[in-house]
Amino acid sequence: MAEQTEKPVPILSRLRPPVGAVRKKTRVGRGPGSGLGKTAGRGQKGQRARNTTPTGFEGGQMPLQRRLPKTGFKNLFKKNFATINVGDLTAFPKGSVVDLAALIQTRQVRKALDGLKILGDGELEHALTVKAHAFSSTARAKIEKAGGKVEVIAIVIKPVARRA
Question: Exposure of 90 by Cβ count < 10 A (0-12 exposed, 13-18 middle, 19+ buried)?
């Protein structure tokens, strides 16, 4: 029986790219011996040789970003809620109080964002007291049907920083 020789496992500190994979950066305008001296590969004279064309310039043709229509707008006052479904609340024991802090602690919600919204997907078998900033109508109905309480927390509006 022939012995199998195991290849040594590379250590991260000794990893190197294969020979010929990494090439030096081309330095243009560094003399005639380089092949890219004098005009540095830009040709002779003209607008492009002088580096005066703006980005997106298409030689006088109407540029792409001006040919395409403007779309949409960004609502500066949009509320971005952390969401969770009613079905996910079954992880909490009967009679417990479920709020944003409890959901972050159990890692069902990652960040507080602008508040917490409870959505109506799934079923709830036992009564819970749920405190959130917003509820969908189906979520509210399912929590109350299971014998639980729904408490709406007021949204705290963050002041917008204004420049003087």
Answer: middle
CB 70 within 8 A of CB 104: no
Angle of CA points 72, 73, 78, to nearest 5°: 125
Q: What share of the chain is helix, strand, coil (3-state, %, to 5)?
A: 20, 15, 65
Looking up tokens 């964002």 gives 113
How high is the pLDDT of residue 135? 96
Domain CATH for 104: 3.100.10.10
For residue 120, the enclosing domain spans 82-152
Task: Assess if residue 160 is contained within a domain.
Answer: no
Position 158 in a domain: no
Q: Which of 78, 82, 87 is nearest to 132 (CA)?
A: 82
Collapsing DSSP states into helix, strand and coil, what is residue 45? Answer: coil
The number of domains in the chain is 1
Asked whether 126 and 146 are in contact (CB, 8 A), the reply is yes
Low-confidence ranges of the chain (pLDDT < 70): 1-4, 160, 164
| Statement: the pTM of the whole predicted model exceeds 0.70 | no
